[in-house]
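pinging the channel bc i need a second pair of eyes. not urgent but kinda urgent?? the chain im working w is below, pasted from the shared doc
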Amino acid sequence: MLSQLALSIKESPTLKLNETAALLRDKGEPVIHLGGGEPKSRTPIDAIISCTSLLNSGEIRYSPADGVPALKKAIIRYTEEYYGRIVKPENVLASSGAKQSIMVALHAIVDPHDEVVFPAPYWVSYPEMVKLAGGVPVPVVPSDGSFHPSFEDITLAVGAYTKAIILNSPNNPSGVVYSDEFIAQMVEFCQRKDIWLIMDDTYNRLVFDGRKPTNCYSFTEEDVDRSKLLVVNCVSKMYAMTGFRLGWAVGNRDLIRAMINIQSQQTSGPATPSQWAAVGAINGMQNSIEALRTTLENNRNVLVSRLQAIPGVKVTKPGGTFYTFPDFSAYDRSSQKLANYLLETVRVVVVPGKEFGMDGHLRVSFCGAIKDIREGLERIQWALDPNAPNELFLGSRKLVRDAV
């Protein structure tokens, strides 16, 4: 008999989609995956050299639960360079991905029935992670129908049981970048109300149109050890190192100490080769991030123009990340049914919007090859738009609309 908690937790829909796409490809199906969250850039050479050096030594051992000193030193330098804050090793925790950093933070913060507030659309894992920690997820849909929450939207959802607020900007799945004014208001509000503010900065430097990355620390003069800010980062997206599973958190030393204790009893420290790869990436040349950002901005422009060409589709131009979150409700209000239809009919993988708290939308990624983006959108338009050309080729197979 499984526990009630285990029965209440859903499978990760994005990981399930990756598995489905891989199975179809193995069968020879011409699948185009526009639902993924992995940049196609190669791992930075500095990360490879650093990791390989450790592997060649043959000395691959356990690390401290909070990370090897060299990685914590690199994170301290990164925090000073990109956030303008000097922190100490006691303020830093390295984890097996940003997901684990957030998870152990929630375990450290949340008591049973405490509430955690976050805007919708939200990353698919937030609600399940809060439930795993024994808390109650409180998603907040922006009242103006946009993807950008207002200060009033969030504060109206805050109650006596609220222990934390999670903000992810640039946002997965919408790509929207929250305004500096909104972030500043939330930093001040959480400090005043004694509520933890978890900044999920996974995509922080992947912003477009000349915008500078938002620095949440610029909106407070509080010392890190008195601050209610917890800033989470990782090498997965910006450095295109998803397989290394390495993230980190920077915050109040008392919170970090509790997180270290919890992590030490769960998984101990992250895999040592991954940590040394992260050391190489963080301390090495940063041009790979700019190259990725430039590529993604170009991909975004192509994807948005193709989406705008499909009648009835409403799209908000993303200011960052590598996702769009267009509204396809003119074709089907059930995003699950529509995603299934596109996969079955034209072999295009997208993620249903209901998993992100907004049905009728689909998350469409632009981190893949530009060829796949163009062909994927051509397939989607063929499947939905009756005025599109009557014939479509899926690899060597010809589809004729009247025959589908």
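so The first strand starts at residue 32 and ends at 33. and The radius of gyration is 21 Å. — does that match what u expected or am i reading it wrong
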